[in-house]
Design goal:
2 copies of one chain form a homodimer. Chain A is α/β, with parallel strands linked by helices. Chain A has helices at residues 7-14, 18-25, 33-46, 52-59, 75-90, 104-116, 132-140, 164-177, 193-208, 225-236, 250-262, 280-284, 296-311; strands at residues 64-69, 94-99, 121-124, 145-148, 159-162, 183-186, 218-219, 244-247, 272-274, 291-293, 320-323, 326-328. In chain A, strand 3, helix 7 (132-140) and strand 4 (145-148) form a beta-alpha-beta unit. In chain A, helix 1 (7-14) packs across helix 2 (18-25), helix 5 runs parallel beside helix 13 and helix 10 packs across helix 11 (250-262). The structure holds a DNA duplex.
Amino acid sequence: MAQKVKLSTIAESLGLSTATISLALRDSPLVAVDTREKIKEQARALGYIYNRRAASLRTSRSGIIGVVVHDIMNPFYGEILKAIETELDRSRHTFILSNHYDSVEKQRMFIETLLQLGGDGVIMSPAIGTPVEDMRLTEDNGMPAVLIARSIDGVDMPTYRGDDSYGISLATNHLIGLGHRTIAMIGGTDQTSTGRDRYQGYVNALRKANIEVDPDLRIPGPRTMQGGFEAAVHFLSLPQKPTAAVCWNDLVAIGLMNGIGRAGLVVGQDISVTGYDDLEQASIATPSLTTVSNGQAEVGRLAARALLDRLAGSHEPDGIHLIKPEMRIRQSTGPYRPRA
Amino acid sequence: MAQKVKLSTIAESLGLSTATISLALRDSPLVAVDTREKIKEQARALGYIYNRRAASLRTSRSGIIGVVVHDIMNPFYGEILKAIETELDRSRHTFILSNHYDSVEKQRMFIETLLQLGGDGVIMSPAIGTPVEDMRLTEDNGMPAVLIARSIDGVDMPTYRGDDSYGISLATNHLIGLGHRTIAMIGGTDQTSTGRDRYQGYVNALRKANIEVDPDLRIPGPRTMQGGFEAAVHFLSLPQKPTAAVCWNDLVAIGLMNGIGRAGLVVGQDISVTGYDDLEQASIATPSLTTVSNGQAEVGRLAARALLDRLAGSHEPDGIHLIKPEMRIRQSTGPYRPRA
DNA sequence: CTGAAAGCGCTTACAG
DNA sequence: CTGAAAGCGCTTACAG
């Protein structure tokens, strides 16, 4: 490649100072319009590339925002990320993405890298078991953080997520309303706020309907399609013969439906299944999946906006902002029928 | 936050020079072992954060690698990215991810941002219609690029992708071997190398079996699950009454299978369907999907390694490296049966 | 084994 | 409206 073009290259070629070039390229009104045009023209002609590291070293603003979630391959996070991307693009921020796969270690390394790069802020769905100190790391170093999808006890940062307890109770109530009494809960973990809230919502709904809660009807663990698929065998062999399953999320539900289908039973008739999240896939699954919309786009949009607002100086109130979930009734649930 | 801790802070607190601190923190053997330990200890105690922008301004190496693909929410790219992530993590590189959604504009903006940040290299699956100049932008500015999944005519950069023509012929031959003669091809576009190659592979296989190629049996367009689902109506109403469909990818195939199921036909018996990619979902779909493994993990791993090797000075040969696809036979395909 | 000094390419008061 | 100069926080020859 040719000699590197920098501000001084342009300055010399035009007989101006680097200060003027710098101002002109950033559209400062301090520079006369025609000088500005001439400078921009020349920058283009020379193939000038703005050196952000130098600028950011000087200004201590990098334009970089970090985003770290459990796993971007999970469409639930994918849908949140898409909304974040849209917001950040609009304000010309660059975002750096990482999965932590629920490794506190990996998450901490990401935060450190982001600090080293001078990240302006971070949006995170904290890993299971994230210690409070790790969260402090961000704010102590002047990098504001916004949480999504999960909250951490003892951390009072702005947090955007669905109202899990309420959402899962919608699904459970829907099944109860269809006459089901033996309802299993498939998937999830007690190690996250989300997991605890969803199980609680299920328990609450059953109690309110005077249905005894049988702990053996809970099959914790699965959070993926594969997991739901594998859980089908366990589910179908439960001695209580459940006629319905409230699933942790849509992926688990779709996997479970596939597993149930393999066993020759018809979902929506023999067994009712609900999902959670209302992913794009939910409506085109066969049968189409009854689920709960979890407002992913809303979560992503609001979290990104909150961070940008804070960077712009205004201060969104801290604490948890719950997005209201909504029921989506489709073909995977139907009236109670006793199992053979 | 407290006053920012930098090299000079540590230097002063220990009565040493910044040069020594800098060397010690990077484990230089030039610094005595106990001095080194003392320095590291102090750095930790003070909560020192390495300023990469400053370092990178000085060394003109950033440790950043850019990755840009069509859409990370597509599990095909997700699986490639996972492999890239694994390789880059190992060498302590940070990666910046972006979708271009086949917008040349968005892709160019990403490349420019990456150049501004001093990116060390870029891995890209180029957007449809990427002009050769845009590809030059990377190398002209000393940032090596490696292509994945798609190639561009006239660009001789290292490229890693599956052998699409061969792969789709495997699927087509499998159907022909089962006795099918009226085989549709669903999805894809002629605007990418991948699209042209796959259609060509399908055509070649038919010709070789002396089956006349009927252009009306091609339904171009769909590349998503939703697209495949919607194409089912068109497919089922084709007057030629095809008994099998070669799909662009697994997503289209799964969508199509759902659509066929809704129409009351049984995939694997009434209609045979093949996918492409062998995504995780393929094996747990119902029926499980016969498909072609496209070596995503291999593509990601090799592309990342090629870039890292080049950054380390060695020079992987340019040109296209084709990964051999493999057939995965499952339940979605079965022997020919005339349609009612 | 350790230090003094220059320089990476910007931006920003300040002066004119 | 434009310029001279300092400084952001590192690293790297060079000297000792």
